[in-house]
Amino acid sequence: SYVLTQPPSVSVAPGQTAMISCGGDTIGAYSVHWYQQKAGQAPVVVVFDGSDRPSGIPERFSGSNSGDTATLTISRVEAGDEADYYCQVWDYRSDHVVFGGGTKLTVL
Amino acid sequence: DVQLLESGGGLVQPGRSLRLACAASGYSFSDHAMTWVRQAPGKGLEWVSSISGDGESTYHADSVKGRFTISRDSSNNILFLQMSSLRVEDTAIYYCARMYCGNTACLGREMEKWGLGTLVTVSS
Hints:
Number of strands of chain B: 11
Radius of gyration of chain A: 13 Å
Oligomer: heterodimer
Number of helices of chain A: 0
Strand content of chain B: over 45%
Distance between the termini of chain B: 40 Å
Structural class of chain A: mainly beta
Number of strands of chain A: 9
Radius of gyration of chain B: 14 Å
Shape of chain B: globular
Largest sheet of chain B: 7 strands, mixed
Structural class of chain B: mainly beta
């Protein structure tokens, strides 16, 4: 089965840039989506199709996807960005949704 | 305004059954595929099941295949998850989510709207 690998945690100071990786075999060929989940809340999509942003999501959130790594980049990090972030793809070989293990973003 | 409201969770003994429901409102229900995602306490997101907008195509995670069944009632705009032979490891918050569009190709799209979830606890 297809596996997505994320670092368990990322820490960044306010105003700096956070980069959260999502590794998978030739993930660049997949459509990758990113979700933000704040404590006690349901997830919210922040980036879809690798680099597109839903309406209402700040431009500070961006994504890229190439080769074996997809990346969620959060610029000018704010305290309110502290959350768990998950990458997700649809594995067409198995007809399964796959989530990464999640990354806890801590704003120092 | 699009709303998804899950119900049916609760405490259930191992081996028993439970049916979850997700009431959808504020949009054309059949135009969107739907998905169930669960989250065990303190753990990450785990996909459970997905269904196309017309209900003709269904998909289940290996961990629930043969035990859980996803279905939808387009007359009443309700998504269901029938869970049987429940195990302790099925304990989780269960979220329903709306996919971007309706056909099977849309299962590769994002989960654009989520409900608040319903807690299922499997314990003796």
